[in-house]
Write a structure and sequence with these properties.
Layout: H1 9-14, H2 16-29, H3 36-49, E1 53-57, H4 60-70, E2 78-82, H5 87-94, E3 99-103, E4 124-130, H6 139-149, E5 152-156, E6 164-165, E7 168-169, E8 176-180, E9 194-198, H7 201-210, E10 215-217, E11 220-221, H8 232-243, H9 245-262, E12 284-287, H10 291-300, H11 330-338, E13 339-342, H12 350-362
Parallel strand pairs: 2-3, 2-4, 4-5, 5-8
Antiparallel strand pairs: 1-9, 6-7, 8-9, 10-11, 12-13
Helix pairs in contact: 2-8, 3-8, 4-5, 9-12
Bound molecules: pyridoxal-5'-phosphate.
């Protein structure tokens, strides 16, 4: 049996008629960028998260970059961010010439709240929280620390659409919840797309201006903006997907639970859930001390896996100028060397999972 790491067409086929109807509706409408579909999606997604405003954008990276910029964070300012996140989170900071200050993750692979305060200086302007792999971060202490020090919380929810901490949805704890709708995300479009959600009207207005060249009224450019508009096709398709997101997330939770119950190999460390947090299992990530050997073994058995992520941002080529060296974030580096994401996708069958489980349990 051949198992791919990710399969995207099965979730299309599940709701094919609805997607095709939405696509045709857009094609026939004669309106293709920032129109009725975008407005409706923004309303529906704001409501889904429980926030007042949603602004549709071009990508998750834009959501991060524009959130930092709209808060006036720039050259010389520091933003705290977990060291084991995806590079895009950090780009959201450095694209504004601000400085990322890395903090090690906890055993749930999210930012270690106990280590945040020691990283705060008088130049710290925000804490950027990534709900990595779909599990909500430890938001109670994070919000408390941010309030105490009067700094903003920006959430990177690119992997956590619908995940909750203490019953409250990720993306609703700080000023800005930043979402990506890249096709592989839990709420994935059929191309690039993103959004922010917020309760702050002025902040929403500013992002709305920024996404369209900095103008509210056409040709009246109040600020220097960008082009980060969401198109009607992606918005219409996202509306279909959003209407099924809870059942899609539930399916992933069931698949994850199946792995957790059936993988029984002392060499393989399974993911754990934090008290009060839940996960939508954007990835099912295990750890293994000889990870590369495990990866090769699975590959030989026709099972594709991925590493999220093999090189942590502080060691990335592009951030050489920050001057970090290997050894400075040992927890992050150890995770990067031992993590492996197992195949998990909408429509994955028990037979496919059983094959992966059988091989994992036979691994020595
Ligand atoms: C995917 C992702 C992003 C970037 O989203 P794009 O839409 O690809 O720009 C940012 N942060 C995290 C954690 C992601 O997984």
């Amino acid at each position: 049996m051949q198992i791919k790491c990710n399969v995207l067409d099965r979730q299309f086929q599940m709701y094919q008629a609805e997607y095709e109807e939405a696509a045709l509706r857009v094609l026939r409408s004669g309106w293709y960028v920032l129109g009725n579909e975008v407005r409706q999606f923004e309303e529906e997604f704001a409501q889904y998260t429980g926030r007042t405003y949603c602004v549709g954008l071009n990508s998750g990276l834009d959501a991060l970059i524009l959130s930092v910029r709209a808060l006036g964070i720039g050259r010389g300012d520091e933003v705290i961010v977990q060291a084991n996140t995806y590079i895009a989170t950090v780009l959201g900071i450095t694209e504004n010439d601000a400085i990322p200050v890395f903090v090690e993750p906890d055993e749930y692979y999210n930012i270690n709240a106990d280590r945040i305060e020691q990283a705060i200086t008088d130049r710290t302007k925000a804490i950027m929280v990534t709900h990595l792999y779909g599990q909500a971060s430890n938001m109670a202490p994070i919000v408390q620390i941010a309030q105490k020090h009067q700094i903003a919380v920006i959430e990177d929810c690119a992997q956590s659409h619908g995940a909750c901490f203490d019953g409250k949805m990720t993306g609703t704890f700080g000023i800005s919840g930043c979402f990506s709708f890249y096709p592989t995300k839990n709420l994935g479009a059929f191309g690039d797309a993103g959004a922010i959600v917020t309760d702050d009207e002025a902040f929403a207005d500013k992002i709305r201006m920024m996404r369209n060249y900095g103008s509210k009224v056409k040709y009246h450019n109040e600020i220097e903006g960008v082009n980060s508009r969401l198109d009607e096709m992606q918005a219409a398709l996202l509306r279909v997907k959003l209407s099924h997101l809870n059942e899609l997330n539930q399916e992933r939770k069931n698949l994850a639970e199946y792995y957790t119950n059936k993988i029984q190999n002392p060499d393989i460390i399974k993911p754990q859930l934090r008290n009060k947090a839940d996960s939508i299992y954007h990835q099912y990530v295990v750890r293994c001390s000889e990870r590369d050997r495990l990866l090769e073994y699975l590959k030989k058995n026709d099972i594709q896996t991925q590493i999220h992520y093999p090189i942590p941002p502080h060691l990335a080529e592009c951030y050489k100028y920050l001057g970090y060296r290997r050894g400075e974030y040992p927890v992050t580096e150890q995770y990067a060397d031992s993590m492996l994401s197992l195949p998990l996708y909408t429509g994955m069958t028990h037979a496919e999972q059983d094959y992966v489980i059988e091989k994992l349990n036979a691994y020595k």
